[in-house]
Amino acid sequence: MTRPERYTVSARAYDLISGERPVYRRGRVAGIAGLGLTPGCSVLDLGCGTGLNHPLLVRAVGPSGSVVGLDRSPAMLAQARRRASREGWSQVRTVQADMADGPVPTADGSTGFDAVVATYALSLVPEWERAWANALQAVRPGGRIAVVDLALPTGRGRLLTSLARAACALGGSDPQAHPWTAVERDCTDVTASSWWGGHVQVRVGTRPA
Ligand SMILES: C[S@@+](CC[C@H](N)C(=O)[O-])C[C@H]1O[C@@H](n2cnc3c(N)ncnc32)[C@H](O)[C@@H]1O
Which positions fall inside the Methyltransferase domain (predicted)? Predict the structure, then answer.
């Protein structure tokens, strides 16, 4: 099964089967908190899936802000739009695109988004360095960028290795990709956190001016 088909098939059940509450929510909460969003901010959510980040993003940017969710899977985006329409979030827009293809223009033609977030998404993209370069270009100089992604646990967390391996295989994620290292390499003011013996990794940094 190819990766787009994986999410086409599982889109409706994704929120239930993704391990969100017990395991993965912590990472997204930490990553989004690190963005320092305020009312009126614009934020790009790369590989947004069903929009699990959107409640947190919408709360932070308020009605005057904007949230653009980009994903290549129409089925996942349909779920994200359903969530936005159910909640009455007119500030959420979705774009169907491959994040490795090119930078995403802001809705108002400004120099870039105030922030970009990619949760559990870059490690699915074989050309994640290209997607990262696009993400850096999409955020304005001085804007914040968060990468939340998966690795195999280390230390005492190794007890969880088979579970972590299974979770990565199920989602199509490459646990050796380590895309957060690009935040450490290319950004300033980087903050780092991790959970579950390093299975969930969070890095947030500022795009240099
Ligand atoms: C594991 S899900 C994570 C979704 C969401 N970010 C979350 O935190 O729940 C990965 C998502 O990345 C999307 N994706 C994978 N490769 C992509 C690419 N090259 N361009 C855009 N989206 C992609 C998939 O369609 C899927 O919706």
Answer: 43-143
Ligand 1 neighbour 175 (Cβ under 6 A): no
| Structural domains counted in the chain | 1
What confidence tens digit (pLDDT) does each residue in 130-163 have? 999 999 999 999 999 999 999 999 988 788 888 8
Instruction: Say how far apart CA 33 and CA 126 lie, in whole Å.
Output: 27
Distance 120 CA to ligand 1 centre (A): 7
Task: Using the structure block, give the residue that is written with the tokens 């993003």.
Answer: 57
CATH code where residue 28 lies: 3.40.50.150
pLDDT band at 5 (very low <50, low <70, confident <90, very high): low
Whether ligand 1 lies within 6 angstroms of the CB of 56 is answered as: no
* C-alpha dist (Å) from residue 1 to 5, 6, 39, 82, 174: 6, 7, 41, 26, 16
Give me the domain span that covers residue 119: 3-206
